[in-house]
Design goal:
alpha+beta; two-stranded parallel sheet
């Protein structure tokens, strides 16, 4: 999973060459109500969100409309 994450980071670098922060946000065992308040705030402010099949898709409804979404399961399968 970590290797897939870094492959995804390389792919999204083309969107912005400025230095940015990377946050790893977990929501426990896949339930939307287990995400922390800070994690949800960061998710709402994110320009790019990389997620996998474990995410509760209702969490993705909190992402801002112009954010780029990447499912690392689908993209990693193309490699």
């Amino acid at each position: 999973m970590v290797e897939q994450f870094f492959l995804m980071v390389k792919k999204i670098k083309r969107y912005n060459t400025q230095s940015k922060k990377v946050y790893l946000i977990g929501a426990g065992p896949g339930k939307a109500d287990l995400i922390t308040v800070r994690g949800l705030r960061i998710l709402k402010e994110a320009d790019v969100v990389i997620y996998d099949y474990l995410v509760d898709t209702s969490l993705l409804e909190n992402v801002k409309s112009d954010a780029k979404l990447f499912c690392c399961d689908k993209l990693a399968a193309r490699e």
